[in-house]
Amino acid sequence: MSLSAWLWLGMLVLLALAVPAWGRRRGRRRGGPGPGRRLLATLLFLLALVLGLAGALMHSWHWLHEDVPVAQLSLRQLGTQWYIGQLQVGDGPVREYELRGDEWQLDARVLRWNLPGQLAGLRPVYRLERLSGRYGDPKQDLAGQRSVHDLREGWETWQIRQRMLAALPFADARWGSGAYLPMLDGARYDVFLSPRGGLVAKPADARTEALLREAGW
């Protein structure tokens, strides 16, 4: 169980102790709780509030340092510098794209929040723009066969929503971000959005890690 869960559990225990302390005393004397019990109940309530707030902050802080899954990409080689990429964005369907070159690249546009917005539970807003193939040699990139695929679905709606969100006082910055890694036959990659709002690509399994080592990455 996470630290935030333990803090919230402690809050519930303190509340369970504080509520009876405010109840009426049983016995021969009339009236409500005495000054001592009232003071104890107040302290328990305050401590429960502190634990609850600390749990909320720890929960937010935990995912502030956690990458958000964005997409998965699997590669199958058809020929020299020629691949089929199977891309799954979130829980959406798997789609195939023809890619040419030595490396794949995924680009996105990102809207990031400042710290108060992040602590309030707002995660970066992003929209994937394109998946493309690129050559390791920039000169070949100028003359080689290009492969660029538009991933912008509902782009006009995104543009309007992005402008509205960017006007909020806790919006931090807007920028483009991209991640790329080698295209290798049988490789599988996971793509994440980092807490700072940048795309990060990682090998999805041990086989891909071994392929990257063999390729000198």
Automatic annotation (TrEMBL):
Protein keywords: Membrane, Transmembrane, Transmembrane helix
Residues passing through the membrane, by range: 6-23, 43-64
Origin: domain of life: Bacteria
Statement: the UniProt record of this protein carries the keyword Transmembrane helix: yes
The protein, known as: Cation/multidrug efflux pump
